[in-house]
Amino acid sequence: MEFSFTEEQQMIRDTAAAFLAKASTSDAVRAAMVSETGYDPVLWRRLCDEMYWQAMHIPEEYGGLGLGYVELVAVLEQMGRYLLCAPFFSTVCLAANALIVAGSEAQKASHLPQIAAGTTGTLAWTGAGGRWDADGVELVCRREGDGFVLNGVCRYVPDGHTAELLVVAAREPGSQGEEGVSLFLLPGETAGLSRQKLPTMDQTRTQAQLEFDGVRLPSDSLMGDYGRAWPQLARIIDLATVAVAADQVGVAQQSLDSTVAYLQERVQFGRVIASYQAVKHKAADMMVKAEGARSAAYYAACIADEALAGGALGAELPEAASVAKAYCSEAAFFNAGCGIQLHGGVGFTAEYDIQLYFKRAKSAETFLGNSAWHRERLAALLLDGEAVA
Q1: Per residue in 15-48, pLDDT tens?
Q2: CB of 353 within 8 A of CB of 336?
């Protein structure tokens, strides 16, 4: 497959870079990440009203722009580059994708226009065990009358403490693995649901714990067939994995760019340290990592487009997502780590932003499965199709 941006896609990426360079500055990021919400509501409204990115890949019939996943990934790369603090990933790459993939026509017509207008959302599926496969679904659901009752805990929910709309995965009592999984749609403020913001290493990305204590839901909250939602949830997770990989590309690129800028300023033994051959070689290694990661992420984005459009290549989404996540995780962590080394001792200090990229790289590496997990999953998919434990 040959890939190059169209003129429109190039314009979208350049516009995103220009906007975020001014709106998501170091000072803005540092102020947002220590706030209770974890983001600046004023900036979020600007993203929604001025840029309309939250509606980018939502179909036009539901109030969106009807663009593809490649355009979305181009914007996500820039968000990673500038460490944007906003509920964009949780709303667009989790909640909106869940509605697009698994929602009924009535649910799409009701909620996708709300997301296109700026309503925030997220997806909760993994429990305290922190697994990212089907066995990670620990929340329990049972039928009661014409509705459902949910009990249990979901953890590591992106922006879960502020999301206005929740998509939740739960399983029937006694079920295991891919069997008995269902998806539900509910408001963030629902009786019996308590939400707690969790401490995170990467403060630019908030996570929460959701506790369900006899939460009662009506029958129309069910998304798809009861107990048969794992194939849809797996696709949603794969789409989200591609989005995380795009963010990691931005982290890898900015770690390189900021480090090179520092190397060109720092003088040692009467020379800028960028002139030393060993330093040049390390920077070259970082560039190779960033370019390779970008190729993997944009290939996965093309496959995601096919999957959402029902194309034949869409069947390759699990493999493409795992390749992208494995490679981009390593590239982001390698570049951020090398960036700290090449900055020297000051790289660990709070005054320099490279430590923020290191934290984002490490956090994103473990979220949705690390490189080893995805390589094992990829081997299983390619060799025998067995699920990864």
Answers
A1: 999 999 999 999 999 999 999 999 999 999 999 9
A2: no
User: Locate tokens 């019939």: which residue?
Assistant: 61
**Range 230-383 has CATH code 3.20.20.140:** no
Fold designation for 122-223:
Butyryl-CoA Dehydrogenase, subunit A; domain 2 (2.40.110)
Architecture of domain 7-119: Orthogonal Bundle (1.10)
Give the Cα separation of 246 and 75 in Å (integer).
9
Q: Which residues contact 11 (CB under 8 A, 6 or more apart)?
A: none
Q: What is the pTM of this model?
A: 0.95
Write out residues in the chain with pLDDT < 70, as ranges: 1-2, 385-389
Sequence spans of domains, the chain: 7-119, 122-223, 230-383
Say how many C-beta atoms besides its own lie within 10 A of residue 19's C-beta. 18
**What residues contact residue 317 under an 8 Å CB cut-off, 6+ apart?**
235, 238, 239, 300, 303, 304, 306, 307
CA atoms within 13 A on the CB side of 151: 8
